[in-house]
Amino acid sequence: MDTKDQAFQQCINPQCRSEFDSRQVLFKCPQCGDLLDVRYNWEAIEVPKKLSDFANRWTTRSNRLDFSGVWRFRELISFCADEHKVSVGEGQTLLQPACGLAQDLGMNPRSLFLQYEGMNPSGSFKDNGMTAAFSHASMVGASASACASTGNTSASMALYAHSSNIKATVFIGEGKIAYGKLSQAMDYGGHTIQVAGDFDDCMRQVQDVCTELKIYLVNSLNPFRLEGQKTIMLRIIEGLGWEVPDWIIVPGGNLGNSSSFGKAFAELKALGLIDRVPRLAVINATGANTLTELVNDKGLRWNNGDVDQQVIDAYYANLDATHYRADTIASAIEISRPVNLKKCLRALDVCDGVVLDVTDEEILDAKAQIGAYGLGCEPASAATIAGLKHLLAEGTIDKDARTACVLTGHLLKDPDATVNYHSKMGREFSNPPVQVENDLQKIIALMK
Ligand SMILES: *Cc1c(COP(=O)(O)O)cnc(C)c1O
Ligand SMILES: [Zn+2]
After folding, report:
1. Residue nearest to atom 2 of ligand 1 (CA)
2. Looking at the domain assignment, is residue 136 inside a domain?
């Protein structure tokens, strides 16, 4: 089967809509500079008649592509031949019922679910995207890859680059990078370059470096990467017995995840594979709340693709003028210039979405609550539950609404944040160690 004719790239700007071959390596439209989508000629693809047909692949999971939680949905991400598909067993993730947590939040105990993406090979959801990006990189014969990263992108890139025999260079800023993540990129043999600037500076530099040196960029600007992330939504639907939830909640950083979720639901609806689209809540940290300010305060909307660029330009000019630097404990979402902003606005339009921001205190309290029920996650992921509390309180989400929160990264990514929280007395959910003399009776007394 020639996948060349099954997929192509298309500019998201309705004034432009330029199309490009799927073998071209682009991360912005060469005509107008806007973002690109992967599009499919669906009539050339044998898409299963109903989503539950994908469940048949569980019986053939000795086939590595059927085992992958991404590629078992391969008809919905059909841009490269099977021989190019790179997999390290990503997407073996759980939709976990969260009854206890739901009760703590005053929800119906059967309504809340946690989609635990920390169970991926590199410990974050990024692997869903990286398997797709590196499959495309293999298809086009790339020999070197690069990304700007707050940590998880680099960990995932270095892992997949290793499996595809492609060189990997990571650009990190001077800001926060959790050691769990940095250690992965180094251990997997990635070449790490620390730029004297923040994530947003790295993001700008890496784009120019990749253009100049013809290096394959794996940030979420890469439209092929986002195709893999669509499968997080497919697995949530799968986990609900092939039913669509009422709400999806996801943290928002560079806004690649939220963008890919919106694209997934738009495609599934158009294909007749779902009959309704869930609502989407994207949660920022207060210290990195560009999306929240643009949508809630400035009224920015997708507007059929005619996004008001002046509002965005004025907002960024002000960030420059005030030397604004994003600042949050949730380092994975410490981003003030989200590259997928317009695609996220489109996702909010598709999913009748809402956005809001939560403070670092709220994030850390929510993180401890999630952890207390035995899953655990890194700070950025806990923004989902912190956001859910607001949405329940204001009545946007009903206590009976089936809600799936995406826990984007593993607890062990950022042990400092966890230990610091629990070591301090007086935080609402802190669980500090108790000191005791090296004396049996005193130890036993403490155990009673
Ligand atoms: C990358 C990342 C995010 C942010 O996702 P975007 O797609 O950039 O919005 C959130 N949480 C974790 C753990 C991440 O690694
Ligand atoms: Zn264009």
Report:
1. 332
2. no
